[in-house]
## 1
Amino acid sequence: MAPSEALTSVTLGPADVPDGLALSDAAGWNQTADDWRLFATQGRVFGLRDGDAGPLVATAAALPYDGGIGWVSMVLVNPAWRHQGLATALMARCVAHLRSLGATPVLDATPAGQQAYLRIGFEDGFALARWEGTVAATGARAAAPPADAAVVSALDAQANGCGRGFLLADFLQRSGTRVGLSPARTGFVIAREGRRATQIGPLVADDESAALSLLQAALAGVGGRVFLDVPERWAALRAWLEQAGFVRQRSFVRMSLGAAPIASVNDRLFVLAGPEFG
């Protein structure tokens, strides 16, 4: 019997969040228990366990958005179980699930994953990169004013071509989340706590200058390690990050299995929510 034949297929629920978190922690990822809970309650997380009640060794998640878009992420395999086709099998389950809902699968792929996804029919969209930096704390943080979830969700939908109201509402109700709105309330930025660093994004703005103002305000309210995912299109924003001491951590390519507005860089989308959410 091949090792993979001893695995048990499972669909993760809220009770499985600690096991999912242990898997992403082992990979050094930034996802939190809140992120895993959201995938388990709002989407579908397919997993494989070693035996009926053994440790979780692989996962992949499918998260449907309004407007016929489905996000695929959290493709994780324990190093001891790699190169046995587990990720490919779980990806196929995500794609089949999203297609059953009438949703076009979309994901952010690493360069290594890009080649595998091209082979199963995904097409390249835009390039992006994760930037990492350390921000000096400026002292006590002022209390963040209550955020209007409806305004933030509407702006996000305009910039992404799909509705993610439940995602934005979840971000806003988390402890430690901070949101900034532009003076005219035509743009916003969210900073939320991650497992390894503060995650900045999404950031929606009228133009690159307005985006930079929102980003600078968001960074002034945090301290420590910071991650943000920026489309390569925004040269001025990337140049400012370099001047501020941020470094490029890794690159991604947005890919879709069919036509999807979210696979193109919108003129108002400057920082993404992260590869796990788009």
## 2
Amino acid sequence: MSTISLGQAVILGVVEGVTEFLPVSSTGHLKIVEGIMGIPVDDHAVVGFSAVIQVGAIAAVLVYFRKDIARIVSAWFRGLTNREERYHHDYRFAWWVIAATIPIVVVGLAAKPLIQGPLASLWVVAASLIVGSAVMWAADQMGRHKRGEDDTSFKDAMLVGGSQILALLFPGFSRSGATMSTALMLDLDRVAATRLSFFLGIPALTGAGLYELKDALGTGVGAAPLAVGTVVSFAVAYASIAWLLRFVARHSFNAFVIYRIAIGLLLFGLLGTGVLS
């Protein structure tokens, strides 16, 4: 019997799609909703399911930014054989994305027992939501928002890419929140920070989803819930990306900070009263 039903897969797909790229922690929200529905949040099959449906959200990024991605990939291939092309920002940016993905891959493989075990706790999620909120608020206030996407450097990519480790180890911190906060601290403007977060997340999240696929299929989740959750995640994430880019062009991240704190406190309350365990 499947660990996750089709109805639950739809709900989790919506949650993943809405929260994957908003700086509110998709992992945290998935664990909260799983807990409410009585799904064991630290079960390996459930962790695998969460990683796989992220591929739907990543597919939404690939489709939404297909022209940018095609431009960057084309520049990278041209630069492999043409010395002059190697001075192009897109060629260098492609290498930066590759290099910035290495730290999270190494840590993800080395710390997998912790990530799928003790760190999968809802108590960790609640604490990380609140701590991450403080970091995000400080970054938004301290950042000078004066640098655009074309001003990014190798240092920026490595620091922003490396910050994904925080979300990997502490579900609730938010990969988007960590990367956007780091980019803001480096004085990138909000739109540049958001787009950089998207691009750096593509290889890391795609790799995680593919790596977990065998575990998710082999431990009782079933192909149908995986397919449904992934498709729903794609559709909802595409709409979320479009909305977020419009939002950050005109607003600060304060709304996300307040929301994260509220959810974190609510989760502490539910855990403390035994409603969730």
